[in-house]
Design a protein that fits this description.
This protein is α+β, with helices and mostly antiparallel strands. The chain contains seven helices and 13 strands. It is 26% helix and 23% strand. About 16% of the residues have low confidence.
Length: 374
């Protein structure tokens, strides 16, 4: 009896050992396949006013150090211990808080007021200071009013100021150093429309802060958040922070009172291209409190790279802000547009903004410059 029991025990031990060996082999064989697999992100191609069908296009994965893989349960090849989930979340919260603090100092509210004998019209947009010399990036449809104030036939009726802080107040005076001539040619009256519609293609401008409203000296360096086309790789699902001064829900505050800077986080939900299926020109963000008119020109900041990923350009349809997507042109598209218009890369163009100011000129034959905005 004991002999039979011992034999059964030995057989069971052998079977268990075989099962463990087979399981170990399968784990080691399958794990590399899982770790080396890549997914193809959906890539929607759009053309002005004529969306095309969705076309899948392979997209390079962002470097792993820029986007931590929170779902990974295995350790790396160096066997570093994965931080607890609570620690990861705490670090992300601290990072977003730091980005929000920096964005608060670099964001600006661009306000232009056009007066006639019978009415006053106020236009409000957003922008971001992108280098220590005081260059502001915004949309061409916002900067068009600064062109009107400086070069238009009715320039005496329009004045513009750069506001800062929250609530915003008049702080700086700025002049244009670049307003995409391609956008101005293709959109002669878009800026004057009550509810303008546009794809956002080439809708980019740069201003240079040249003075203060109170006459005090300019700071030696401005707080800023940089962007870099070579490092900015939008990816669906990425968390971003938006910095803008939306005014749609607070229009009654203008022009005498300031607007509040809003800095919500959001998620990239779609990637788009205007013409070249190999480029990412526009990103769509999940609806947030920033999904309002007035956010145009606001910064979209990647929470991983802490750099500007894009500039808000249009809002989608929706009865409430939470279901209204916010669209932004990417830094890559901004770089392509600047190259097309000037023959210079974005970084080269911004290297000497005072030289850009000296050489800036605008075609005064643009029809909108000779039209009074009413």
């Amino acid at each position: 009896m004991n002999t039979f029991a011992e034999l059964a025990h030995q057989i069971a031990a052998i079977i268990t050992t075989l099962i463990l060996l087979i399981a170990s082999f399968l784990v080691h064989a399958i794990t590399p396949l899982i770790q080396n697999s890549q997914t193809t992100a959906p890539y929607t191609v759009i053309a002005p006013f004529h969306p095309k069908d969705t076309e899948p296009v392979e997209q390079e994965n962002s470097p792993s150090e820029k986007i931590p893989n929170e779902s990974a349960s295995t350790t790396s090849s160096t066997h570093k211990q994965t931080p607890p989930q609570s620690t990861v979340e705490e670090l992300k919260t601290v990072a977003i808080t730091n980005i929000r603090t920096a964005a608060t100092k670099a964001a600006v509210n661009i306000v232009c007021i056009t007066q006639t004998a019978t009415s006053t019209r106020t236009i409000s947009g957003s922008g971001m200071i992108v280098n220590p010399q005081g260059v502001i990036v915004t949309n061409a449809h916002v900067a068009a009013y600064i062109l009107l104030a400086e070069y238009g036939s009715y320039q005496g009726d329009t004045s513009c100021r750069i506001r800062t802080e929250s609530p915003s107040h008049d702080t700086y005076i700025a002049r244009p150093i670049y307003v995409s001539p391609t956008w101005l040619r293709d959109n002669p009256f878009t800026a004057f429309e009550e509810n303008p519609s546009s794809t956002g293609e080439h809708d980019i401008a740069f201003l240079l802060i040249t003075g203060t409203v109170d006459g005090l000296p300019l700071p030696l360096q401005f707080p800023f958040i940089p962007f870099d086309a070579s490092e900015t790789l939008p990816t669906e699902g990425n968390t971003v922070l938006i910095a803008a001064y939306p005014g749609e829900l607070f229009a009654n505050l203008l022009p005498n009172n300031g607007l509040w800077l809003l800095t919500p986080t959001s998620t990239i939900i779609n990637l788009y291209t205007f013409k070249n299926p190999k480029t990412i020109d526009l990103i769509s963000l999940k609806g947030s409190i920033a999904s309002q008119h007035g956010s145009s020109g606001g910064g979209v900041i990647d929470t991983a790279t802490k750099k500007i990923l894009g500039i808000v350009v249009t809002t989608g349809e929706g009865t409430t802000v939470d279901v209204r997507p916010l669209n932004a042109i990417t830094v890559g598209h901004i770089d392509d547009t600047v190259r097309m218009d000037t023959g210079m890369s974005l970084s080269a163009f911004l290297a000497d903004p005072h030289a850009r100011l000296t050489s800036f000129s605008v075609d005064t034959n643009y029809q909108f410059l000779n039209t009074h905005p009413r």
